[in-house]
Write a structure and sequence with these properties.
Length: 191
């Protein structure tokens, strides 16, 4: 499914990428639920996103990318046999918890030695990462106590004008958030 087929336009994606570069918070569709994203290297943007959700920094955040190379600065090297399995699952709806690079910001890792990452196959989310030029924070679009948004109107009910842009589009068809696996052992942390 192309980004146009998913319900977005290059203009809207370009606008949202510019908002992200300025430190804004953007909502967009993902594989299963609507996501909130920001520049993971900007502590001010991440702090604002966490405040919108009412979520503590210590939980860490998922990063999404359009290509594995966009995650490079956040990840430490893995043994080749583990890296092959991970690469084989991407792009796609599989989130991996992988060893963090020493350069990975603490607000992304939650102070742990790992980072949760996904190379998305969702056409709008991937196009947004490409237009932005790197990985994005991607967390479900809902207050911490609420259910993840499954529509643009629900995102607006949750956050109103407190988000800086909303990229229209359709969800990718998963019935629940993406599975999460431990990259060191391969064990499922969330099915």
């Amino acid at each position: 499914m192309s980004e146009r087929a998913a319900g977005s336009s290059p203009f809207r994606i370009g606008h949202a990428a510019a908002v992200l570069r300025r430190g804004g918070v953007v909502a967009y569709p993902t594989e299963a639920v609507w996501g909130l994203g920001c520049d993971p290297r900007r502590d001010d943007a991440v702090a604002r996103l966490l405040a919108l959700k009412g979520r503590p920094e210590r939980q860490g955040l998922i990063l999404i990318a359009a290509e594995p190379e966009q995650l490079g600065g956040f990840l430490a090297p893995l043994p080749e046999e583990r890296a092959e399995e991970i690469r084989a699952s991407w792009p796609g709806p599989m989130t991996w918890v992988l060893p963090a690079s020493p350069r990975a910001p603490r607000w992304v890792s939650g102070g742990r030695d790992t980072v949760a990452v996904r190379v998305t196959a969702h056409p709008v989310a991937a196009a947004l990462c490409r237009a932005f030029g790197g990985a994005l924070v991607s967390t479900s679009a809902n207050p911490s106590a609420g259910r993840p948004a499954r529509s643009a109107p629900q995102v607006r009910r949750y956050f109103g004008t407190r988000i800086d842009a909303l990229v229209p589009g359709r969800l990718g068809g998963l019935g629940r958030p993406t599975p999460i696996r431990d990259g060191r052992s391969g064990a499922y942390l969330r099915r």
